[in-house]
Amino acid sequence: MLDGMQFLFFIKYMSAPFFSVIVPTYNRADFISEAIKSVLAQTFREFELIIVDDGSTDNTKEVIEPFLSDRRVKYIYQENNERAAARNNGIKNASGEWIAFLDSDDIWLPKHLKECFNRINQINIPVLIYGLSYIVDVNGTIISKIKNKRIEGYVFEEIIKKGHTGFANSSVCVHKSIFNDVGLLNEDRNLSGSEDSELWDRIALQYPFYSTGQYTVKLRHHIDQTMVNPVKMEQAGKKKHEIIFSKTQLGIAHLKKISTANLYLWFGINYYASGKMSDARMRLFKAIKEDKKILLTIKWWWTFVRTFLPARTVKQLRHIKFLISEQINKKSEECYNQNQLGVCILVTRHLPHVGGIEKQAHLLSKELVKVGITVFALTRNYYNMKKDEIIDGVYIHRVTLLGKSSWLASLSYISGSLLWLLKNKKRYKVIIGFQAYSPMTIGVITKIILGKPVIVSPRCGMSLNEFNELEHLPFYGIRKYLLSKVDKFLALSTEVSKEIGNHDISKDKIVVIPNGVHIIQECSYIRNHKLNAKKNLSLKEDEKIVVFTGRLAKEKGLDILVRAWYNVIKQIKAKLFIVGDEDTDRSIALEIKRITNQLALQDSIIFTGFKKDVTNYLVASDVFVFPSRAELMSNSLLEAMAAGCAIVASDIEPNKELITDNINGLLFPVDNEYALSEKIIQLLTNTLFCEKLGKKAKEITIERYSIDAVTKQHINLYQELIK
User: Fold this and answer.
1) What is the rounded distance in angstroms from the CA atom of residue 454 to the CA atom of residue 440?
2) Global model pTM greater than 0.85
3) 304 CB contacts (<8 Å, ≥6 apart)?
4) SS (H, E, C) 452-508
5) Which of 85, 84, 62 is nearest to 75 (CA)?
6) Which of 280, 288, 326, 647 would bridge 665 by S-S if both were Cys, CB 3.0 to 4.6 A apart?
7) Phi and psi at residue 256, in whole multiples of 5°?
8) What does the pLDDT look like over 263-299, one tens digit per residue?
9) Residue 318's closest CA among 331, 304, 333, 302?
10) Is there a contact between 489 and 511 (Cβ–Cβ < 8 Å)?
């Protein structure tokens, strides 16, 4: 029998790794040892390393053998068939969830996989992730950085225009499931040198790209490298160009001129880098012939001028520029470290109490911890829980409450928190109070004593307005004075911002930062994901599905939705799923069901009741409908966007902040059942348009409303206040 430690050891090494690192090699005995060592030195340890020897004739195998004692390292030998075949062989033998590529003459910095892992966790969907790269010489000495513009999101047209992606194969990792949709690398030998770029084109058609934003890869330039052979690179580049523009169904013919011009510009840069100046100029002139607009780019002119300078001079200038840049970056990093952030969050309830405020407070705290910010949460100690505890990296201090009355509880929370804040004054730089009651009071008193900046996130809007309630509480004059000392107020939307401004608070004190949402991994616009979700719900593959999620409350506009549905099913056979529970105060569930029966819609409308996880419904949907009459910022709508749904929503202001008509969804006039039915029918009869809207919705959610994006906005605010 295995004891506990042995069992954990067994599980750790028998479970599938997170990354499978694929290293193809051919006659790289001089460099492969350094490449392998750079993988084994990664700070993120959950990986396997698969080395595919493409029929080496030197002593590559002997160099690799000492590393095979590490159980994470696998060695596969194949007859020479070029890099694409070697990489494909590695992918087929990979057991990891993510595939990371590394050429056998390149090097990873120790944090490469960790940075990829962090970015993957932030996005949490199948994507292509890439890092930034240094250029190094044969000895591993850094010569320069690759400084191409970072591209993120759905970038297919952008990379087709550019003629290349601008990032290196050795910086890329791809979710393994993506290869099931787009296929493996093209093994045509005429593509050798651009086989990876051709694969990126296919991936970009269906999936987004994201950058780690970190320099974690060293690309080695040496005489035996394909990249150093501009003739081979040109041959492969033209073949890749021919393949992508032969696919007339993609509708990209209008991009061919600028794409070809940029391709010749890239060829010119490669010839210049190889010291073949006349060949470089010839390609640059061909770029002009393809599209004269190329003359408007700085890169064309800078390359052209450099072809008349001695290569050695340009190389020296590039290296000097790199050294200056590195010194600036080093100073910036030192300055940042000296001003390391510490944040104290004040919230009356915390885990295990779970409500909207508690969820957002802890979600934000966890994300701040992930980026290296120390977070403290001061809360009330209900039910004699642990006084001090660390949950998900967040230090939680629970203040003991004296007595059962609300006044005694508030006084003891205020006094206990103030004592902790004064005692630990060097451990935090910013205070955030969730609510304008006790948390605001504690924060402002601390500011008055210590000068710490204070941010308050009040509940404000619809039927709940903390500012109105404060006016009816004792000591309103003192509370109003304390409110005037708050540095910034957080508003979920511009509507909430206006409401806060109605209470004599200046606009420059109000900052709009929305709630964050975790990005759902599955996508409604990806056919395989949709079919799996329908299977999970026991639905037929060809069934048209429309979904609403949320409370069954009057302000949600479900009566309008049911009447609109009557018009929809006259033209299209479909089902409407209303996913949500009755609201005890504002429920119109009985009224909705009465209308459903009255219009004989029982067979096409399904009331599911409360569902803890609505992911399958969102991903299975052909249309997500949200006819609400009033909102602050809808979590249901954010979740639908995160799932890549094709959305129809009412045109109330909070919805218009999330949805731009005909860009990432459709809007209809609130309470107009005929307009709503027309919009639903429009989407149910246009799959390609639904896919376009869904992709854009997901992209916008990742950029603006993912918890990662929201956390960045918070950090920028904290740094501004500290300055």
Assistant:
1) 8
2) no
3) 281, 284
4) CCEEEECCEECCEEHHHHHCCCCCHHHHHHHHHCCCEEEECCHHHHHHHHCCCCCHH
5) 62
6) 647
7) -65, -40
8) 888 888 888 877 788 888 998 898 899 888 888 888 8
9) 302
10) yes
Give every CB contact of residue 536 below 8 A, 6+ residues apart in sequence: 616, 620
Contact yes or no for 262/287 (Cβ under 8 A): yes
Find, among 614, 652, 425, the residue nearest to 524 by Cα: 614
Cβ proximity of 371 and 708 under 8 Å: no
Residue 514: strand, helix, or coil: coil
SS3 547: strand
- CA dist 99 to 41, 113, 406, 703, 708, Å? 18, 11, 56, 24, 23
486-496 average pLDDT score: 84
Under DSSP, is residue 373 helix (H, G, I), strand (E, B) or coil?
coil
Residues in a beta bridge with 595:
none
Question: How high is the pLDDT of residue 473?
Answer: 62
Distance of alpha carbon 532 from its chain centroid, rounded?
23
**What is the pLDDT at residue 7?**
41
> Model confidence over 613-653: pLDDT tens digits?
899 999 999 999 999 988 777 888 999 999 999 999 999 88
pLDDT for residue 224 is more than 60: no
Amino acid at 430: V
Give backbone dihedrals phi and psi of 538, rounded to 5 degrees, phi first: 60, 40
Check residue 622 and give its pLDDT.
96
Residue 553 backbone class (left: φ over 0; alpha: ψ -120 to 50; beta: rest): beta
What does the alpha-carbon distance between residue 100 and residue 44 come to, in Å, rounded to a whole number?
13
Question: Which of 158, 91, 165, 160 minimizes the C-alpha distance to 128?
Answer: 165
458 vs 347: CA distance, rounded Å: 11
Map tokens 């004739």 to a residue: 57
- The tens digit of pLDDT for each residue in 181-196 reads 899 998 888 887 788 8
How far apart, in whole angstroms, are the C-alpha atoms of residue 243 and residue 202? Answer: 11
Q: Where residue 340 falls among pLDDT bands split at 50, 70, 90?
A: low
Closest CA to 397 of 435, 351, 437, 434: 351
Q: Which residues contact 654 (CB under 8 A, 6 or more apart)?
A: 493, 495, 631, 632, 633, 634
Give the Cα separation of 28 and 86 in Å (integer): 14
